[in-house]
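Can't paste images in this forum, so I'm doing it all in text. The chain is below; anyone willing to post the predicted C-alpha cells underneath?
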Amino acid sequence: MAKLTQEDLERYVINEVTSACDVLGVAYRELSPEYVEALRQQLAAQFGPGADYLLTFDNMLGKNARQDTEGWALLQSFLNREPHLLFYDAPGSIDRHGVRFLDGSAIPKVLAECFGFPFYITDEAHRFVVGMNEHDYLIGVGSAEAWMRGLPAREE
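Text version of the structure:
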C-alpha cells in the first residue's frame, strides 16, 4: 500500500467528492479551506455559540437529530435544485475544503458514490444546516430542523 503524502491528506475527502461529481456529471466548484472556515464562523453566529467558533454538530443550538445509517438518502426530499454548499470535519491538517453544488438535489447521488464521512450542507442564504455525523445521526437546524420533525418515524 502506498504511503499517503501530506498533499493526499490535505485533499482526502475533496478528491473523493469531486471524483464522484466527475463520474456522475454533477457541476461543482471547490471551496478553499479559508472560505469554509469563514462560512463555519458565519453559521456558528447564526445557529451556534457565536462567530468566535466554528459550527459543529455538538455546538448547534435548536437542532433535531435522528439516528439512521441511511439518513443521507432522506436529503433527497429536502435539498432542492438551488446551489448548496457541502463541507466536512477533519482533524488537524487533514482536508478542510468544501464543495459548492450548482444543483443541491444532486448531493445525495454524489454521497452514494463516496466513502462515508461526516458532512454539513447549507444553502447560500444560510437558512439551514443539515448533515450526518460520525455516529450515523442526521442532524438539522434552521429550516432543516422543521423538515426533520415532519419525517415519518423510522421502521425498525
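The CA atoms of residues 25 and 41 lie 31 Å apart. DSSP finds six helices and seven strands in the chain.
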